[in-house]
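User: Assemble these into one structure.

Assistant: Restating your components, then the assembled model:
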Amino acid sequence: MEIKVVANVLKLNDEVAALNRRALAEAGVACLNIMGSPGCGKTALLEATLPRLRPALKIGVIAGDIATTRDAERLAHLCDGVTQINTGGSCHLDANQVRQGLANLDLHALDLVIIENVGNLICPVTFDLGQGAKMGLFSVPEGADKPAKHPRIVLEADLLVLTKTDLLPHVPFDKTIFDADLRSLRDDVTLIETSVVSGAGLDAWCQWVRRFVDERKGVQARQVSQSRTE
Amino acid sequence: MEIKVVANVLKLNDEVAALNRRALAEAGVACLNIMGSPGCGKTALLEATLPRLRPALKIGVIAGDIATTRDAERLAHLCDGVTQINTGGSCHLDANQVRQGLANLDLHALDLVIIENVGNLICPVTFDLGQGAKMGLFSVPEGADKPAKHPRIVLEADLLVLTKTDLLPHVPFDKTIFDADLRSLRDDVTLIETSVVSGAGLDAWCQWVRRFVDERKGVQARQVSQSRTE
């Protein structure tokens, strides 16, 4: 009985995620779901790169946290619309929360919605939010064993980012183990190594985002056109 | 219906936690449940301090992770018994998993069981495991906003530890904000600031553990004696 209820919750979530995906496609907006541990540098990466991505891209942000509006406050002046979702105690964003977040953004004025999920390397991966791509973050001070300990985000991510590489001289981090564990799970996933302190990898991440938005809009346009002729 | 099932799961968990608590009391073993984000330094703190706490204290460890036995391997030669619990995909240890972990340890030969929970600052806090005390870790590179964003662990912890203070010169971390947020939630909680690199705070943490074990054994002895006379 317990399993059935959990399955129903996930099924309901998937149905709302499909509605989100359709709303995003009809507005021609790409959507990226960013996930990682508390303090892995999700907000810092956005702070460092939103100014480079704009104004060419119009970007809305949905920031998820258990409590506080601090991330939204940090990002408000750097994007074209921001919504903070406080989950209360819940450890992840679900599709219905994102649906409410999307309703607070002027989708037709945007190219990209970035969802900054609740700081958690585990539960958010399970919940489809209607995004076009999932991105997983690991940070250098967390240690090299995190891909092996958290395989699901490695298996499901469209992009992985290793943050805080400027700390490599100051912490024990065996990059050989990190890479070997990652590649033993998946040899086809893109990994970008970044530091908002040194600036390393920020151009590569911006390029990835621009390409993602272009490709996603192409896919969406074909889907919308196809659904209208059906 | 969903809420009822979740409530039942928690009720069942609490019942098994009570069994764990009784088994620990009857064996005269204190139990500490350690929680924090992935990579916040739970295992590193134990690696650095188990050699100081032993042989005066006999210590068993239950290490929780989604996957791998790496933590148990790191700690095996440093303690008097270790059990690794792999949760599969689950984001926390529950009381039944700890019950199985306790069954793998020779409780009557131990003074203390340390539960190193799954790396997650959110879900583990909800689940009573039968421990005598809860300890929450924050690490400096996670940033100063974590107590405000994760209030429940602050509210429920018997001890908070701030790890990796050696990184303070290398990362932005506003200690004034960290302290103010912490004290606005609770002004009575003990905070120990540690670094396994510099050694700062390790003596204070060991002293806290020794006092906890002494006090807990006293409480348990009175409880067991009382239940026998009832």
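Chain A has one domain: 28-229.
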